[in-house]
Amino acid sequence: MDGLGELDERISGCRACPRLVEWREEVARTKRAAFADWTYWGRPVPGFGPHDAPLLIVGLAPAAHGANRTGRMFTGDRSGDVLYRALYDIGLASRPDAVSADDGLTLHGVRITSPVHCAPPANKPTPAERDTCRPWLVQELHLLRPTLRAVVVLGGFGWQAALPAFAEAGWAVPRPRPAFAHGARVDLEGTEEAEALALFGCFHVSQRNTFTGRLTPRMLRGVLRDAAGAAGLHPFGPAQEDRDAPAS
Ligand code: SF4
């Protein structure tokens, strides 16, 4: 097992945040009626995707009945349906949906992680929980550093959480720190420790954003495609197509 595999195992055993440990395990015990026959994961959810990925997607935290049930990032909920569909459409995922950890889904050149690895009540980790979990993200970034060239951060919470982690992992993050915006691109200069990194902001794929049309599939594909290009990947389809087509 390589360093990232070992890190994923250590993350899965973490119990550093008492409130989140209690919540994730209570949800796993009580379950949602529709998933009564599932054995919930009920533990921290590690990152998912190749260990030499040039592109990283940073979310927020696992969903109580999604990743906290299936044990894999964005797997088993509506947010994941939107994200994996977009990744599939541009050629970075082997299938358009994600239902369980053993569904055979593989990602091409992209890894997905989050700044908080346990499902929080109301999808809202506290600042203290975010800070407690940050060393895991810093270690993951360290291990990805040799290949990592671009990152998509989903939502303002992830942005706030990730910027200090990039700084701790060896990148030069400007001060004052750049603000989050959908479509924002910030180029972190390379240092002696790390190659330059292109950072992209994207609205989170939450139901609140996707049901209201704040984030459309076209907008999501556009950011993912730009980031994939910056990472040296070759996404399917011309970028102009998503910029010009009606939202869908
Ligand atoms: S949120 Fe992070 S630090 Fe807190 S218990 Fe979960 S894995 Fe550990």
TrEMBL record:
<dbReference type="InterPro" id="IPR036895">
    <property type="entry name" value="Uracil-DNA_glycosylase-like_sf"/>
</dbReference>
<keyword id="KW-0234">DNA repair</keyword>
<feature type="domain" description="Uracil-DNA glycosylase-like">
    <location>
        <begin position="46"/>
        <end position="224"/>
    </location>
</feature>
<dbReference type="Pfam" id="PF03167">
    <property type="entry name" value="UDG"/>
</dbReference>
<dbReference type="InterPro" id="IPR044147">
    <property type="entry name" value="UdgB-like"/>
</dbReference>
<dbReference type="InterPro" id="IPR005122">
    <property type="entry name" value="Uracil-DNA_glycosylase-like"/>
</dbReference>
<keyword id="KW-0227">DNA damage</keyword>
<keyword id="KW-0408">Iron</keyword>
<keyword id="KW-0378">Hydrolase</keyword>
<keyword id="KW-0411">Iron-sulfur</keyword>
<protein>
    <recommendedName>
        <fullName>Type-5 uracil-DNA glycosylase</fullName>
    </recommendedName>
</protein>
<dbReference type="InterPro" id="IPR051536">
    <property type="entry name" value="UDG_Type-4/5"/>
</dbReference>
<comment type="similarity">
    <text>Belongs to the uracil-DNA glycosylase (UDG) superfamily. Type 5 (UDGb) family.</text>
</comment>
<keyword id="KW-0004">4Fe-4S</keyword>
<keyword id="KW-0479">Metal-binding</keyword>
